[in-house]
Specification:
The complex is a heterodimer. By secondary structure, chain A is an alpha+beta fold. Helix content of chain A is 49%, strand content 16%. The longest helix of chain A has 57 residues. Chain B contains 4 helices and no strands. Chain B has one domain. Chain B is mainly α.
Chain lengths: 244, 110
Amino acid sequence: MPSHAVRETRANKIRRFFRPTLAQAILGLAFCLVASVAVVQIRGTATTDPYSSMRRADLVELLAGLNSESDRLDAQIADLVATRDQLRSGADSSRVAADQAAQRLDELELLAGTVAAEGPGIRIVISAPEGKVSANTMLDGIEELRDAGAQAIEINDSVRVVASTWFADGDNGLIADGIELSLPLTIDVIGQAHELEEASRFRGGLVSQLESAKVGGSVAIETPNRIDVDSTVTVEAPRHARPA
Amino acid sequence: MLALIGLVIGIVVGLLITPTVPSALQPYLPIMIVAALDALFGGVLAWIKGVFHDRVFVVSFISNVAVAALLVWVGDLIGVGSQLSTAVIVVLGIRIFTNVAGIRREVLHA
């Protein structure tokens, strides 16, 4: 440095460093002061929250920022809640619709005879001389059973009786839906057993007609707890009728 | 030597005592510390150069700290406190860099 021409030697410097002087003492005092205050400040900023040392203007600005942020988030929450409710109600209504459709499908399948059915009901076993059970008698009997609430009817474990089932008198006996029915006839009916039995047994009904002297048959009615109707029909698409 | 001992004692004292800084002084304490650091480095530089005057150092130390705190306080009063504290920090930072550069030049000759 130009201010002092003579550069002191390194050894001199080191000697000066270790010699206690007033200058050193004052510097040491200053160091001590600054170090302690700095350490206190460092500990203070480390432990207390950062807002305690902020100015009022900064805090007000911070608060305003937080308020607007909070408003924005509130609006977002309201939006999302509305969306959630919408989605939830949409999901609910579509599930209800699907449930109803599935239930309706089950009913219609049972009605149309496209699925097997099971449930309580009666089994009517008809023994009669060959060719004595006429289609008319059979049809009347089936109608009576339907009136009594029969929900699925099957003859001889092979013919499912549905809306389009027909009966005819063939050369060798009774024909239903194109299938010859051999005797004895077994009619499985699912429904309320007591009502079905009454519908068969009333005076002039199926049983009394078949057991009359003209036919000379015999009818046995069982009421098992469970009737299985396993035969099904395949529904052909209607060619002429359309939903109106 | 005594300076280093003072530094160590200061750190220990700072760790041991837990003074409650008055809240009115709290925003100015960091500025005062930076000002004191500036004066301290100036003092060290002067001592290394061999031109250290205790009176000059003490006066500059106290006035540095006082002026820095005063500036920021006035700034707070007129509503530019944060800007003024930034300005003070920048100026003191530059001075600290200059002083440290001088110390480096004296000690390392580089």
